[in-house]
Write a structure and sequence with these properties.
Layout: E1 2-5, E2 12-15, E3 18-21, E4 24-27, H1 32-36, E5 46-53, E6 56-63, E7 71-77, E8 79-86, E9 97-103, E10 108-112, E11 116-122, E12 126-133, E13 142-144, E14 165-166, H2 168-171, H3 176-182
Parallel strand pairs: 6-14
Antiparallel strand pairs: 1-2, 2-10, 3-4, 5-12, 6-11, 6-13, 7-10, 7-12, 8-9, 8-11
């Protein structure tokens, strides 16, 4: 296992060994003792899986749950570009963006600290993304910023001539300016 700190305070890429053979491959993607070295308060409260088609954009999602919500994300099948945006007001890395390629055979896992926005773009024909969260789903605390907000400055890797597929909820999410004005951004 290797650990790479990202430009977003508290965010990391964890890379595990991948063991391919004639049957396919095996890789670990979560070990509690490894995560303790990143965040000694992280405990798994929920596990999620989403499957998306090519060119789907999901995000930018975050939680303002009082107990916080950190995430551990990997790609179980296919290939995505995982995108993190530091939305924590007062953070030294506020509005920094990180792009991390995750694929079924890369061995990469992303640790996303509480308050950091998360989304992804599906590059392969389809992709399954699995993630562990440190708090359960609570709709009253779930928030989003429209992923195409120019103020965020995310460069979505959509091939020329293609259109990204974005859910109605994500396309109608507030802009960064509206979220700031409404006081719904997390703090550092």
């Amino acid at each position: 296992m290797t650990l790479q700190e990202l430009s977003i305070s508290g965010a990391y890429v964890v890379t595990h060994n991948v063991f391919p053979d004639e049957r396919g491959l095996f890789r670990e993607w979560f070990k509690a003792d490894e995560i303790v070295s990143i965040d000694d308060t992280f405990s798994v409260e929920q596990a999620n899986c989403s499957k998306s088609k090519q060119f789907v954009i999901r995000g930018i999602h975050y939680s303002v749950a009082p107990q916080g919500q950190a995430k551990l994300v990997t790609c179980a099948s296919g290939k995505i570009i995982d995108i993190l945006v530091d939305l924590r007001v007062g953070s030294p890395s506020y509005l920094n963006i990180e792009y991390v390629e995750l694929s079924e055979d890369s061995g990469n896992v992303v640790f996303i600290p509480t308050g950091v926005g998360h989304g992804f773009f599906v590059e392969s024909e389809s992709a399954a993304v699995v993630y562990l969260t440190s708090s359960g789903y609570a709709p009253e605390y779930e928030k989003a910023i429209i992923p195409t907000d120019p103020e965020l400055g995310i460069i979505w890797p959509i091939p020329f001539g293609e259109l990204g597929v974005i859910s109605k909820a994500d396309s109608e999410a507030p802009t960064l300016a509206k979220a700031t004005e409404s006081g719904i951004l997390p703090t550092f």
